[in-house]
């Protein structure tokens, strides 16, 4: 970690004080979103990678006792593991906006779900074919229509067709994120995923970092006055703290890993 590139003093003082306090609790759960938090936003979803400093800090924290670490993402779990490079680590990865665990999905995915998803993907592919720069990402229980690389006109036209079409079908959960509309065929919640992790680990305090609409469901499940909710970037949020970008995320994670190591009497990494 280069202290010059990610100085902790660029973080809000009240956040640093709260992180220092959290580092001392018996069990600390550290969890983060992937795209826009660990990995800077890029134009092609397949090119997203975590900042090396953030990845290293997550691994450092996860190596400490009583410090479970998780990444909760909208990505398919296999894609999250591959892109993050954390697949074989001590870090818990949860995909599909909180609904895809390493043990599978908490609810049964039926033939009806699969048929509905196939119809949505078909419609999305038809929309993409009519709008240059629009692409379709497929996942196990959802699909994303990406408009980042389309002209403003094509982007709006594609989104409008998606909203009026498959987003309005019965059984479809629609979420609009960063230059994307995502349609899921089951209910997804990063908040419920956090509840599961909290329960499993017996965490006294949860730190969660997120930048997008689906992260608000995670923030909503955090406990005011105990947990730390950290919004990355602009936009309305339920989160208590706000930081600028993935570089600040790296600073937060490095600070937590170092303070936690000190609190546990482990040599700082
Ligand atoms: O929950 P997250 O880990 O934040 O995932 C949310 C979605 O992120 C990805 O799309 C976003 O990031 C791309 C790469 O930077 C960017 O090109 C795109 O415009 C963004 O919307 C991902 O492709 C989706 O599957 C995730 O659901």
Q: What do you see in this structure?
A:
- The protein has 269 residues and is of the alpha/beta class.
- It folds into two domains: 8-105 and 188-263, 3-Layer(aba) Sandwich (Rossmann fold), CATH 3.40.50; 111-184, Alpha-Beta Plaits, CATH 3.30.70.
- It has helices at 13-22, 52-62, 77-84, 111-130, 152-164, 190-201, 215-220, 246-263, and strands at residues 28-32, 69-72, 92-94, 135-138, 142-146, 173-177, 180-184, 205-210, 228-232, 241-243.
- The strands form two sheets. Strands 3-2-1-8-9-10 form a six-stranded parallel β-sheet, with helices on both faces.
- Helix 2 packs parallel to helix 8 (246-263).
- It is globular, with a radius of gyration of 19 Å.
- The mean pLDDT is 95.
- The structure holds the ligand O=P(O)(O)OC[C@H]1O[C@H](O[C@H]2O[C@H](CO)[C@@H](O)[C@H](O)[C@H]2O)[C@H](O)[C@@H](O)[C@@H]1O.
Main traits of this protein?
269 residues; alpha/beta; Rossmann fold; Alpha-Beta Plaits; 2 domains; six-stranded parallel beta sheet; four-stranded antiparallel beta sheet; 10 strands; globular; binds ligand L263DTV3; magnesium; metal-binding; hydrolase; EC 3.1.3.12; Trehalose 6-phosphate phosphatase
């Amino acid at each position: 970690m280069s202290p010059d590139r990610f100085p902790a003093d660029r973080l809000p003082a009240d956040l640093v004080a709260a992180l220092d306090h959290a580092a001392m609790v018996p069990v600390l759960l550290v969890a983060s979103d992937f795209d826009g938090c660990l990995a800077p936003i890029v134009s092609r979803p397949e090119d997203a990678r975590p900042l090396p400093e953030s990845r290293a800090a997550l691994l450092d924290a996860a190596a400490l006792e009583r410090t479970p670490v998780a990444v909760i993402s909208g990505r398919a779990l296999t894609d999250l593991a591959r892109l993050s490079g954390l697949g074989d680590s001590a870090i818990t990865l949860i995909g599909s906006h909180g609904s895809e665990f390493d043990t599978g999905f908490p609810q049964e995915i039926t033939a009806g779900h699969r048929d509905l998803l196939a119809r949505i993907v078909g419609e999305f592919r038809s929309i993409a074919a009519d709008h240059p720069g629009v692409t379709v990402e497929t996942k196990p229980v959802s699909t994303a229509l990406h408009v980042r690389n389309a002209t403003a006109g094509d982007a709006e036209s594609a989104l409008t067709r998606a909203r009026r079409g498959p987003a309005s079908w019965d059984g479809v959960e629609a979420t609009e994120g960063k230059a994307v509309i995502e349609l899921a065929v089951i209910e997804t919640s990063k908040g419920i995923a956090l509840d599961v992790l909290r329960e499993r680990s017996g965490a006294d305090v949860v730190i969660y970092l997120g930048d997008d609409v689906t992260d608000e469901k995670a923030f909503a499940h955090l406990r005011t006055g105990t947990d730390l909710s950290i919004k990355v970037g602009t936009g309305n949020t339920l989160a208590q703290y706000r930081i600028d970008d993935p570089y600040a995320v790296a600073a937060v994670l490095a600070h937590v890993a170092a303070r936690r190591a000190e609190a546990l009497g482990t040599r700082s990494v």
